[in-house]
Amino acid sequence: MAKIYGNTVGTANSKFRVVCEYSYADQNNGYYKVSYKFYVQVTTGNFYGSNLTSSWGKTFSINGTGTYGTSSTYTKNVAYGAKFTLGSTASAQYTASQTYKSQISGSTAICTIPTKTYTITYNANGGSGAPGKQTKTYGKTLKLSTTKPTRTGYTFQGWGTSATGSVVYAAGANYTANASDTLYAIWKANTYTVKYDANGGTGAPANQTKTYGVTLKLSTAKPTRTNYNFLGWGTSAASTTVAYAPGADYTGNSAITLYAIWELAYSEPIVTGLAADRCTASGTLAEDGQYAKVVFNWQIDAVNSGGLASVVIQWKRPTDTGWSSVTAVSGGAATSGTVSKVVGNNALDTEYDYDIQIVVTDAKGNATYSIVLPAMKYIIDFLSGGNGVRIGGPASRIGFRDQFNTVFSNGCANVNFTAEDILDPNTTLESLIMTNVNTPNTGYMYIHTMFYEEKSVGANRAQCAIPYNSNGSIYHRYYYNGAWSTWKRHVNQDDTQELLWEGVLYMNATQSIKLPKSWLDFPNGIVLMWSAYEDGQAYDYQWNTNFLPKQQLDQNRGGYSFLLVGTNNWLGWKYLYFESDNVTISGNENNSTSNISGAGATWNNNHFVLRRVYGV
Question: Which CATH class is domain 270-373?
């Protein structure tokens, strides 16, 4: 047991002192139990029969060196890390006199009780980079390490209390238990998506999930594609080499898209050398013939077609809906052949073109090939009775017309503006027309059409539109790959700006203006004109202007700020909203207020009003 001594008292030949002897044991509950007792130790001399009294309630005689007056054993619970003190003074003295008194003060720190600590150990559990050990003090919260271990193919989830357990603590979490522990990294294997692309077919398998380090059995489902055999799966849409068969093992630890690889199983029928000419009933070619001599070669897949079903010739006028037809070849074992056949039954009117189609059908499918039988060519023709002339076609209506049946006057088509003859720019084959149909605006315009190569409704071409009898802009557009572009506007000198609105408005929250046309209709945008306003009247001075480009308004509709400056140290800060309909401008509740502080200035918005809006 440990000891602590009081002061030594007595004579040069005879001395004694109080002794406290103590020990402590951990109670494992935040306290140590301290056991202690007192006695008097004679260190020098020859005290004989001397009586002493003690603070622990004993009176005794001392006779020579040795220990005397041992007390009972006392106990006291002292918290971890605290100091052990007696609380009250322990003393011994001569009974008769205070001269010799040895004591240990009650406030004296006899000893400091140890602090209880615990060790937290980290285990990477298959990974690497686990944090170093940490020390936990009893009763105090420990902040766990924020360091996270790593493991190839896995994602760290947190810390568990066993190698196979679940997450108990996150990295950096609080640890409050008063116990040592080993924390194990908890891992989740990474997963990867395997996608399938039918690559022109249908019925691709659904996505699958591949887990790191675990072999994935690919789907056994196979896509389908008409006239093709499925070979397997490749790693790109252009792959010709099979990388994986259906149901094969996929061991890669990465996401992947697998593309179906196809092998042609069937070729559609082919027609070559197709020609159609007007002729007589005997097949003699004639420009005014009302029969057609149709000549062509045909061929089917000799291996996979399943045999010929038929070869059919059919014809009709472009505006008709139904076809006339004749069978040129009816089935048989042949896989190719040549056809020369007269069709039409003397009913192919020389005034019209006719669409002619060849349809070759086998057991697997069919293919259609087309050619146009042209109308008879006319240099000039006169209508019976003498009141109709047509150039380049048969005269069938009154008036002077070209080969497209268009009325002409002074070189321009359709100047008589009759509903019967008005032309549509979308379909006209005329070089120059005047019309109000499908024009950039509602008025009459000259439309000039420029064809590329052939002159037909489906040909690529460009058009220019010029106002007929009014100021305005020129427009252009083009027809390409079966569709018209929008009309593109070109600014003229007489059309550089337009007053869209005029008035006097603060443009507060209850005020808005609606322009007669979109700001996107103008080549550049719009201009706002503000002026001074005082004592209930707008003045034509202190003008402020704001220009807004159409490209900005087209890309970013919404709110815009405008800084306005006037004499008398007036400053204005207006806020307007440009709505998505491209014609409405709305105000803001602060646009008519005064003495607003902000941005280091005082704003008097009530001194400025919107006066005009121009399109430019």
Answer: mainly beta
> What's 500-525 look like in SS3?
EEEEEECCCCCCEEECCCCHHHCCCE
**Which of 536, 534, 537, 540 shows the shortest CA–CA distance to 572?**
534
CATH code of the domain made up of 191-264:
2.60.40.4270
Q: What is the mean pLDDT of the chain?
A: 90
CA distance 48 to 45: 9
pLDDT digits (tens, 9 = 90+) for 319-361: 999 999 999 999 889 999 999 999 999 999 998 999 999 999 9
Q: Tokens for 12?
A: 């040069």
pTM for the full predicted model: 0.45
For residue 171 the two structure tokens come to 């990295």
CATH 2.60.40.350 assigned to domain 117-189? The reply is: no
pLDDT of residue 489: 81
Give the separation between CA 474 and CA 96, rounded to whole angstroms: 134
* Nearest Cα residue to 328 out of 259, 255, 258, 271: 271
How far is 571 from 605, CA to CA, in rounded Å?
7
User: 163-184 burial string, b = 16+ CB within 10 Å, else e?
Assistant: eeeeebbebebebeebeebebb
State how far the Cα of 610 lies from the Cα of 613, in Å rounded to an integer. Answer: 8
Q: Specify whether the CB–CB gap between 189 and 217 falls below 8 A.
A: no
Q: So what's the pLDDT on residue 209?
A: 98
Q: Between the CA of residue 248 and those of 82, 120, 195, 235, what are the distances in Å?
A: 70, 47, 14, 14
In this predicted model, what pLDDT tens digit does every residue of 135-175 receive, in sequence order?
999 999 999 999 999 999 999 999 999 999 999 999 999 99
